[in-house]
Give the backbone structure.
Amino acid sequence: MIKKDWFEEWFDTKYYHSLYQNRNEAEAELFIQNLVNKLDISHSNFVIDLACGKGRHSITLNKLGYKVLGLDLSKNSIETAKKFENENLKFAIHDMRDPLNCPKAEVVFNLFTSFGYFETLEENQRVLASVYQILNEKGLFVIDFMNSHKSIKNLITSENKTIESINYNISREYTGSHIIKHIQFEDLGKKYHFTEKVQVLKLNDFKEMLSQNHFQIIRTFGDFNLNEFDELNSDRLIIIARKK
């Protein structure tokens, strides 16, 4: 049996959605509104939400007037997202590393640290090649990533959360190339151990990767209010790259 990648296994469980059920929806909506205003993206354009989860950003984009395709590898997430489909909002299961056969998009959004899940940098190159292929000429690629410098500096090595009567024991480690989160808990007498593993990528890493794949960074921001990026203090690294 082929072992699944951590994200294939963990994101498709009910426990993942339970642990992260209290994500700030108002903050996500404000972030999307700020982005489309700043980028001056024409309404009715076709955009893609890559690694869309259960579709919260896709739904907001659609409410703002965009034709949206949300893509995610998690079958359970897409099944939930499909409940919100309409004529201009569709969802599909898709591995971001693979080419996609669909109409060309004006913008591809990759939000909430949904990049760098892989073991190798070569797999990131596959993602960028796929995004390049599905964008219009001079289309935009928007990446919302953690600020790795600040995340390492402020890494919380252990914590406990009790949600729906389940006690989640969470620990984190920095390996030099990845930040790994271990999530351990017990439910109905069975013990579970899942991991989240994200590459530690900084702005210069993205500059190199994007340039190699024919993208040019045109703006960077450091938070959901789109303040300027400061590596020492910003909460996020938000990159706006244009297809060359």
Notes: The chain has a mean pLDDT of 95. The chain is about 30% helix and 35% strand. The first strand starts at residue 46 and ends at 50.
